[in-house]
Amino acid sequence: MTSPTPIYDTLQRPFRDLRISVTDRCNFRCTYCMPAEVFGERFHFLPKSALLSFEEITRLTRIFLSFGARKVRLTGGEPLLRHEIEKLVAMLAALPGLDDLAMTTNGYLLPKKAAALRDAGLTRLTISLDSLDNDVFRRMNGGRANVEDVLTGIRAAEEAGFAPLKINTVVQRGVNDHTIVELARYFRQRGHIVRFIEYMDAGTLNAWRMEDVVPAKEIVARIDAEMPLEPLQPNYAGEVARRYRYRDGGGEIGIIASVTQPFCGGCTRLRLSAEGELYTCLFATQGTPLRDAMRAGADDGQLAEMIRTVWQARADRYSELRAQATPEQKRGKVEMYHIGG
Ligand code: SAM
Ligand code: SF4
Ligand code: SF4
Q: CATH classification of 17-339, choosing from 3.30.70.1450, 3.40.50.2300, 3.20.20.70, 3.30.200.20?
């Protein structure tokens, strides 16, 4: 591979990592992401023909790598619902220059898939679990799964060799915040890293209110009161999660404070939706249709030029400007299940 050509946006941020949503479908109905009232039986998900094929995703990823991307994360919707996802993993893992190929999943299908993903070359797994209290968890996932289902998935991931895992936990005031210390304790004992995520105003469907956010400081204080914590240095510049370790030496947690301590200054990410739209921000209102260009016959050079132009024009810093967002901006935001968080 020729050496990559770094690209910088208008705020001098380099492009470094790519999230690929492989499906807009999900087997859960988390109230903060795909509320069941909206995503009912009659909801029209994308037809298969609209989704990027594995060949199209691989072709685009090769081009993204030529701009210096090193990390790729597969997400969704629920990525394990995409038929034969392990084949895509194998195709991406074979690309020269890709050091880190990760996936975020709700874990439900891991008993069937964990070993195949590992064999195909997936390097890391993040599994979402919002509470160990079954009633709380079911309320949050729209009644689609029990805690035990996800714990079984976690065990399958451990057995397949993915440990240590990252566990994503969205914290909502009055919903699951009373269960976070228990969750932290449980995963600490098992050697996994919980990342507590401030509930975000992603998309337009979750009726987000600032009062529902538990600020990062409060999350840390609640855990620290029971299991003392101390801050850790970031693993690398621009790391999204702030890291803390338990003072007695056993394990660490991460906090993703997207609302109260935004990190747009270090945001080096592009997002590719399941139907091949390229987004420069989690809160973007518009994407760039790479699939349409590809299917109209664009060659690799033309696709590379589109990607370069999109990145070089990028000025997004929604979380830093949240308070000033206009009603149009708020109304037009892309949904989280569409671009994968
Ligand atoms: N279905 C997979 C899962 O849940 O892990 C992958 C896609 S999901 C959109 C990716 C991550 O975004 C999950 O960890 C989920 O909890 C998080 N997420 C979704 N909506 C969110 C919101 N409004 N605020 C904060 N995190 C959110
Ligand atoms: Fe599905 Fe993940 Fe969204 Fe929950 S957060 S509805 S599991 S895509
Ligand atoms: Fe990046 Fe947009 Fe999130 Fe800021 S709000 S960190 S620019 S995705």
A: 3.20.20.70
CB 98 within 8 A of CB 92: yes
Please report the atom of ligand 3 found closest to the CA of residue 269. 1
Distance CA 147, CA 159 (A): 18
For 137-164, the pLDDT digits (tens) are 999 999 999 999 999 999 999 999 999 9
Identity of the amino acid at 170: V
Secondary structure of 128-145 in HEC code, one letter for each residue: ECCCCCHHHHHHHCCCCC
Q: What is the mean pLDDT of residues 251-260?
A: 95
Residue type, 263: F
Give domain limits for the chain.
17-339
Q: Which of 22, 27, 32, 33 to mutate to test the pocket of ligand 1 (most atoms within 8 A of CB)?
A: 33
Ligand 2 atom 8 nearest Cα: 77
pLDDT at residue 325 above 90? no
Please give the share of the chain, as a percent, with pLDDT higher than 70: 99
The pLDDT, as a whole number, for residue 237 is 72
